[in-house]
Amino acid sequence: MPRDTPEESAAAQMVGTVISDRYRIVELVATGGMGAVYKAEHLLLRKWLAVKILLPAAKGSPELTARFEREAIAGAHIQHPNIASATDFGTLPDGSRFLVLEHVRGPTLDRIIKKGPVPAPRAAEIARQIAAALAAAHERGVIHRDLKPRNVMVEHGTDAVKLIDFGFAKVPLERLSTTYAHSGGEQPEPVRITLSGMVFGTLAYMAPEAAQGMECVDERSDLYALGLILYEMLAGKHPFDSIVPVELFRDQCNTAPPPLRLRAPGVEVPRELEALVMRLLRKDPEAR
């Protein structure tokens, strides 16, 4: 059996503890270099929740802490059935920040895709719900910037979609804040936490314009990622074969995606649905 990484071992120690006097950590769901996600029980309301904890080591990264705070604000202010809502945010005694989110009973979309092509009607419905979530976010000025199958959860039994993880999102705090509007105080000045020319996110789902820096990424970039996700659901695999992220991104910038009938022979996709996929995957944001 593979041994746990140091991050997993440290994160597992939280299981069984109670944070903020009401959230009992029940199960470690996932870990990353700077944080962990848990299944938790609200002891007073008797309901399941997800708790995301940014580990103390992240205190040395103000940018990472700022992104975590923006994820919390985005999740709290964008109320939509297809976005996992945030209900609480705070700090533990050791300085770790935590975020409480809606719990979704089901897998991430990447686990569904690994089983093979998704039938066209189901793929279209999942994509429709992702689009609805993006529309709600974009209406509030929020751009996800890391849309990928792993950040889409699909509820068991209903196929209800929940978009998660706004950690890389562009979040206009000055537009989302309601407290300043009602207090009569001055609106906060917009704060940039992305340097000019910087690129971040997941290259396999990144729009071509991101090569110019994240300042060139907007709502249409999220739509490109949606197109890649829909293509991947229908074909059962990404449009391009490269396993080297930089080469894969180069293909996304310069190479037209192959028709679905060539990428996945035997898979039937309605002509109108494939046309939609190919429009979303156009290199020029203006043409999507």
Distance between the termini: 47 Å
Low-pLDDT regions: 193-197
Beta-strand content bin: 15-25%
Helix content range:
25-40%
Summed up, the helix count is 10
Gyration radius over CA: 20 Å
CATH architectural name of the largest domain: Orthogonal Bundle
How can the largest sheet be summarized? 6 strands, antiparallel
Class by alpha and beta content: alpha+beta
CATH level 3 topology of the largest domain = Transferase(Phosphotransferase), domain 1
- CATH class categorisation of the largest domain: Mainly Alpha
Domain module count = 2
Series of H and E elements: HEEEEHEEHHEEHHHHHH
Average pLDDT figure: 89
Overall strand count: 8
Shape: globular
CATH superfamily of the largest domain: Transferase(Phosphotransferase) domain 1
Protein name: Protein kinase
Keywords: ATP-binding, Kinase, Nucleotide-binding, Transferase
Organism: Sorangium cellulosum (Polyangium cellulosum)
GO molecular function, one term: ATP binding
List the defining traits of the structure above.
288 residues, alpha+beta, Phosphorylase Kinase, domain 1, Transferase(Phosphotransferase), domain 1, 2 domains, six-stranded antiparallel β-sheet, two-stranded antiparallel ribbon, 10 helices, globular, transferase, Kinase-like_dom_sf, kinase
